[in-house]
Design brief:
By secondary structure, the chain is of the alpha+beta class. Among the domains are: 60-199, Sandwich (Immunoglobulin-like); 251-361, Sandwich (Immunoglobulin-like); 386-396 and 467-670, no CATH class. 16% of the residues lie in helices and 34% in strands.
């Protein structure tokens, strides 16, 4: 209120409304409050608003000159809009995605480099840093769709490419963007917008067309009717699944203060909000949590955990409005962030509740700042996992086994103890008809089960296999016949009943024995290689790829080339890199994922979908300029080992920076110590 209103008097509250770009009917809810005091009884009111499109479309000239009022602090960065890959309006069926590329010319004097800390990207504007409804999973953030991934020198042209994911509500939208040099300046004349038309479900439209065609073409009526009915059944099934996944609770934000935050790093900021239970069900309790999309730490000491802000046991009836307040801490490093919160009732996410606050950290926190609930090196797993490796198919039906630095216990199958094979003694393991035989100087037996040997005292103990030829042409005359951990001599469960030598060992011993790189690349590349290899193997062993063969991964390049102890000897720097990254693996959406790598490309990697089919958002094409002009060596998906080695050397990138370059939007986490 701009004027004093005494008891019994009538006052006037003036509000200026700025219409969003989205057309449609809106209901904006408000509640009167006495600042820092109380909500005012019966102070609730709402406004029904209808937003229409402007009477005419802006011209191209208007489009180019109608830049938002943004500060240009570095005149070396200038641009000229050239074109976009699809003319306005860009039509996207509701819920579907479409990639758009916008071309600009670098008209300034500074080179745009994706590897620079001042890389060039696009941000949403009008209003600045607004949360786009067209955000897809590959966006950098909800207000930053992508960065330009190629080097663009002054006078050159390049494009910024990103995927738009249409909301479920149909209509015409206008999304405004502006190029910026990160932590540096908005780029002069870097404004552009996309007019997007969200249409109805395309499948339904096609079904209608097929129905019409069926009615007009009697000769094909039966076939078309069956096709239409099948698609209708599929549509019904999908709708039922969607209904089952819907939350029984819905709500909406009524009030939020502040609606944006600008403060130094580590500052404590109070947030107040009001929300409404807009559904039919009573909320017996509710919990406020930071969205899983927030990887940044905003936690305050008052929070219940790093992610959980607060919990209330109060009942919230249908149509009721409630108020909460809490504190957050701004991230310690300067930059732009988005703080997003989700509301849960009885473990179910409340649909329609949308609390997002753009956060700009103006300067780094002081050197003595310790963020609350900062990662304290807690790990998910208490113990290091084991992995079962199919070393080799045994063709001659026998092999020799010699413990090198520990006694080995001998078992029929997994649990029938037969005795001990002492260090330095040799046993012969044979398969004769349907039986396995174990023969040594002190012990001899036959069994229908498989034979297992495991170290008596030292899990890292070594054993040598005789009559076991494993040579690799490019590794010289060395025979790779020595391994760590336990050993099994057993048949596969498949129809072929192949006889395999299987190595059962600790994950880190396995990673050290992987022979997929030389020992010469920079240490950062070797560490990235070790983490990629560890992640790949942990993922593959949990799949059904080798389940019938009783192991998790194969020791050749069908998975990863694993050569054991002899490989450790010839790649000591790689072993050091594996030890330095112990337990670290990559995740996407909190899951350990497949992380392939290969020799080198010819300038770009390929997506998983291009090579093997099926979308894996962390495996999309990236530029590999250090491979340019070469013949391809490998499948081209994931990390190019040559490009990574040169990128680490030329750009002094860390192993984490390398991995995040080749594997899009992954997180890196230590799973065990």
């Amino acid at each position: 209120m701009s004027k004093t209103v005494r008891p019994g008097e009538t006052g006037e509250l003036k509000i200026k409304l700025t219409a969003p770009e989205k057309t449609g009917e809106f209901k904006e809810k408000f509640f009167l409050a006495s600042e820092n005091n109380t909500w005012i009884k019966n102070g609730y009111f709402y406004l029904d608003i209808k937003v229409k499109l402007p009477e005419r479309e802006p011209t191209e000239k208007e489009k180019k000159i109608s830049n938002p009022n943004l500060k240009i602090s570095n005149s070396a960065y200038q641009a000229q809009y050239i074109s976009q890959s699809e003319a306005d309006p860009i039509e996207i069926p509701a819920g579907d995605s479409k990639r758009v590329a916008v071309t600009f010319k670098n008209t300034g004097s500074a080179t745009w480099s994706p590897r620079s800390s001042n890389f060039v990207s696009a941000y949403t504007v009008k209003p600045k840093y607004n949360e786009s409804e067209f955000m897809s999973s590959e966006w950098i953030s909800s207000s930053q769709p992508a960065k330009i991934n190629q080097i663009i020198k002054p006078g050159q042209k390049g494009n910024i490419s990103f995927k738009l994911k249409a909301p479920k509500k149909t209509g015409t939208y206008i999304e405004h963007f502006h190029l910026a040099s990160e932590d540096n300046t908005w780029i002069k004349d870097g404004y552009f917008y996309l007019k997007i038309k969200v249409t109805g479900n395309q499948t339904a439209s096609n079904n209608e067309k097929q129905s019409i065609q069926s009615a007009n073409n009697n000769q094909n009526s039966t076939d078309n009717s069956q096709t239409t009915q099948t698609k209708e059944n599929q549509s019904f099934s999908n709708n039922e699944k969607e209904k089952q996944n819907q939350s029984p609770y819905s709500g909406g934000k009524v009030f939020l203060n502040p609606n944006k935050i600008s403060a130094p790093g580590g500052n404590k900021v109070r947030v107040i909000f009001a929300a409404e239970n807009s559904g039919d069900n009573v909320w017996p309790n509710y919990t406020l949590k930071v969205s899983k999309k927030n990887s940044t730490n905003f936690a305050d000491n008052s929070w219940k955990s790093k992610r959980e802000i607060l919990t209330s046991e109060n009942d919230i009836g249908s149509g009721s409005i409630f108020r909460e307040e809490f504190y957050l801490r701004t991230p310690p490093e300067s930059g732009k962030y988005t703080f997003k919160v989700d509301l849960f009732v009885k473990g179910k996410k409340v649909s329609g509740f949308d609390l997002k606050v753009p956060v700009e950290v103006t300067k780094d926190a002081g050197p003595n700042y310790n963020p609350p609930f900062v990662d304290d090196k807690q790990v998910r797993w208490e113990e290091e996992p084991r992995i079962r490796v199919g070393l080799k198919k045994i063709e001659n039906n026998y092999t020799l086994f010699t413990p090198k630095n520990d006694d080995y216990k001998v078992f029929k199958g997994s649990d029938i103890f037969m005795g001990t094979l002492e260090q330095g003694d040799t046993a012969t393991l044979k398969k004769e008809k349907n039986k396995f035989a174990f023969v040594s100087d002190k012990m001899e037996f036959e069994t229908n089960k498989y034979i297992r040997l495991k170290p008596k005292n030292n899990e890292h103990a070594k054993f040598e296999l005789g009559h076991f030829d494993r040579k690799v042409e490019w590794k010289g005359p060395r025979n790779f016949d020595t391994y760590r951990g336990a050993f099994e001599y057993r048949l596969s469960d498949g129809e072929d009943s192949d006889l395999f030598a299987i190595n059962d060992l600790l994950m880190e011993d396995y990673v050290k024995g992987i022979a997929e790189t030389s020992d010469n690349p920079p240490m950062a590349m070797l560490k990235a290689q070790a983490v990629a290899a560890r992640t790949y193997s942990q993922h593959i062993k949990t799949t059904s790829k080798h389940v019938e063969r009783n192991f998790g991964v194969i020791a050749h390049t069908g998975d990863q080339l694993y050569l054991g102890v002899e490989s450790e000897k010839i790649t000591p720097r790689y072993v050091q890199a594996a030890q330095a990254t112990r337990g670290y693996m990559m995740t996407y959406n909190d899951e350990i994922v497949v992380t392939p790598y290969f020799g080198h490309s010819n300038g770009y990697t390929s997506s998983w979908d291009q090579v093997w089919g099926g979308e894996k958002p962390w495996l999309v094409p990236v530029r590999t300029e250090y491979d340019k002009g070469l013949a391809v060596n490998g499948h081209e998906v994931g990390m190019s080992q040559r490009d990574a080695a040169l990128r680490a050397r030329e750009e002094a990138l860390s192993w984490k920076e390398l991995l995040k370059y080749y594997y899009t939007d992954i997180e890196i986490e230590q799973f065990y110590k």
